[in-house]
Amino acid sequence: MEDPHGRAAENTANTEETGAAEGGMTDTGETTSTTAAETVAPDEPDVDDWTLVRYIRRLTMEADRFLQALSDLHDLHRTDLAALSAIMDAADEGRLLSQGDLAATLNLSASATTSVLDRLQTAGYIERRRDTADRRKLVLHLHESALTLGDQLFIPLGEAYFTVWREFDREQRRTIVRFLAATLAATARTSAALPRKG
Fold first, then answer.
1. Does the global pTM surpass 0.85?
2. Residue 174's pLDDT is what?
3. If pLDDT is split at 50, 70 and 90, which confidence band does 42 have?
4. What's the pLDDT score for residue 150?
5. C-alpha span between 187 and 180 (Å, rounded)
6. Where are the annotated segments for Disordered (predicted)?
7. Ranges assigned E (strand) in the chain
8. What are phi and psi of 105, to 5 degrees?
9. pLDDT higher for 80 or 31?
10. Are 124 and 143 in contact (CB under 8 A)?
11. Cβ(102)–Cβ(87) under 8 Å?
């Protein structure tokens, strides 16, 4: 595998592209807001491992900016928004998360998770209820206001995705799903292997 940092020719060729992706100054001194998605060619001449890494990194950065904008717009902590997303995803899959499940999903301590859920419950987005199968456990239920907020937050992005995904046929989508699943699993394994403080 080639060194991702030692390829001088690629780094030189990508200097202009990277600068545009992160925003910069025009010749007239105006600040640009061009995103990474607007600066990359749709057909890479050579898609090696580090090309894929670079695209995933850009997607992560764009997603981070998107979530921060949503958080600011709706006066939500980033962690609160992540918690709502996790609870919504579980509900879409027919699962109910407990507080412990949510803590594990978000890699939060029990006390930090309690603070997140307290804020969401005070805001009227979720409710803690006793699990009907195990009364010792509290599970998280979404209120209608959370579903409405979820629609406001994620439907516009979903529709934008659907538009650009139309060019991919069923077999290509299967390949994309396998790629994303493998990438997610590799990211989770690598994250789990990192040393933890304390």
1. no
2. 98
3. low
4. 87
5. 10
6. 1-43
7. 126-130, 138-142
8. -65, -40
9. 80
10. yes
11. yes
